[in-house]
Structures are given as structure tokens and as C-alpha cells.
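Two proteins were folded this term; both appear here.
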Amino acid sequence: MKASGPGGAGRGILWRRLVADDGPGRLLFYLPAVFMTVFFLVPLGLTLVWSVFERTMFWMKPGFTLAAYGDFFLSGRIDSFLNSVQSGLATVALAFALGFPIAVFVRRSLPPAAQHKAVLLFILPFMISEVIRLFALRPVLGRNGIINDALIGSGLIDAPLDWLIFTPTGVVIGEVLSFLPFMVFCGFLAMEGVPDYVFELCSDLGSGVVRTFVRVIVPLAAPGIFAATLFIFVNSLGLFLVPDLLGGPGAANAGTLVVNAISALDFPLAMAIAAVMVAMMIVLLLIGHRLFDITRILQPYR
């Protein structure tokens, strides 16, 4: 319906002015960039700057010192950090082994109308608090939990398994269950850009399931796999709730080290650990983008 009268004409002119390429409306497209700059890039930059500040009794003061990095790399904290790196790598491997085949199955075996609904089922757990989801694993993994009771009841074991919880294995299990949906979602998003004729061509050429998976599916979905890998690995380093709830005595990851440093009012140390994590993330992102070109995850293959 066209605007009538002077008022309607004025509103029409105002609207066209707002949405014009050179109008004020173009500023809306810059808001995400401004938001990311203010609340992401600037804090990261301050983290690097504050990591070389001098510690005071309750805060820190401007200066340049690498004492915080020395406290991190020349102490037992680096061992906890390296253990969390190993845990993160194990989490990524298990998430890939469990999650990516699910994404391939959903993409290849389900009708198009049901594919997005199936992927949504793996996203629904994120609507529940992380604390609740992790704490709910205790009665499942414990000595008298569901898994041990089922294994003992079936006669497969004689005594409860002690390594399912409050151990590094328990931490990996918690991280896999926390981040598995990201592997499913990113894998499906990458596979969604692959046309169906690729799979039909592999079948016509007599390529087996394993060969098709290794030589065709994984290379085509590499950008999505890497995006999920980076997200899972970085978050497994920083999510301190998992070792707190499912790890044993003294269990810690990089996030735990940062929280402990803040509790001790050693803010430069906390910033130094955070800076190391940021540097690791940037290096991995650059390497992965150079190898796989992450932008291809949003582009269909032709």
C-alpha cells in the first residue's frame, strides 16, 4: 500500500533516505564491526598489554616485565597447561570420531526435510545450563552409577570402574559431551555444501565406504572439521567447570589456572596465561585458514 498525503510521502522519503547506500542506514552494517572492536579486539589487546605490567598488592601498575610469563613457564603451571592441551587433543579426536560420522549420516541418509531437524536435536542440550549438564554426569559415571551398575549386572566386570570420573578420563568424557554438537553442526554445515552427485559418482565408480570417506568426504568437509576442531580445542583449554566437577584432586586446565591467578590477585599472571591461549588460537587459526580456507564452509561446491 502506497503512502498517501503529505505525512505518508514524508515517511516514504525518510525511509528511502535511511536505506540508501550513502544514507545513515549504512551505519547499521558497521555496528557489528564496532561491537567486535570494542568488546573483543580491544580486550584482547589490553590482555597483551596488562600481561607485562608489574604486579601490586591488589592490582597492577604500568611497566614492562616478563615476570608473569616466567611464573607461568618456569613453574608447575606449565605442566597443568600441557596436560590440558593433551586432554583437548583427545577431546577433539573423540569428538571427530563420534560427531562427524553423525553429520555425514544425517546429510546422506535422511530426507532433506528431516536433516535440519535432526541436527537441531544435537543443539537442544545447549539450552540447559553447562553446570547442570556436567553435574548430571556424576550419577552416570560414578562407582555406583548407571554405567558401572549396568556392566556389573551384565557380568562384564566384577568391580566398579574407578577411572570414569574424577580422573583425566572423566574430564575428556565431560568435554566430549559438552562440545560434540559443534562437531556435528560444523560437519553438517560443510557437508551441506557438497552436491549429491558427488556421492553418486563415487558409488558409480565403485569406491568403497572407507575410501569415499577418507579421500572424498573428509577433504571436502575439511573447513568445517577444522572450524569445529579449533572451537572444541580452545574451549577445552578454557572451560574450568569440567575439571572442577569431573576431574580429580588438583585437576586443572588453562581456565583453572587463570581463575586461580585472579583469586590470588596476581592479575598479570592471569593476563599472561590468557595471552598464551590467545596466541595459540591465532597461530592455529592462521595455519588452518592457510591449509583449508575456512571461508569455504559457507560456499557450495560446484
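Next, the second protein.
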Amino acid sequence: MKARIDVMLKTGVLDPQGAAVQHALGALGFEGVNEVRQGKVIELDLADGTSEESIKEMCDKLLANTVIESYRITLL
């Protein structure tokens, strides 16, 4: 069983990496990019039967900083 965790900064939290990417895209001539938010994707290869509650606990305790980040779990 596999799970994908998409982690993003919460709305309102400054994203300096996203701002740097947005600036670089503009410098390369790409127009019309109003905002960039950069996040991370974590893929887990799990034992069959691992509960979604257990995956949520992994996210809450280690994989995401829930003070400034939100996450979405997708079972693959």
C-alpha cells in the first residue's frame, strides 16, 4: 500500500522559496505568474492494512509542521 502526502504552507504564512521561484520565472520571461507556493510531496510505502489514522499521526508528529503547514493524504 502506498500513500502520498502533499504538504503546503498554510495561507498567510510567508513562502520565501515560492517568492524566489516567482521572481526567477519573471526573470526568465514567463509573465502572468501571480503567485508561487512551494511545498513538498512525501511518498510512503506502507504495510497492507496501515490505517489512515496511523498515517495522519505520522504527519502530525513528524512529516508536517502543523503550526505553519497543512497536508493532504492520498492513498495510492
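The mean pLDDT is 97. DSSP finds two helices and three strands in the chain. These notes refer to the second protein only.
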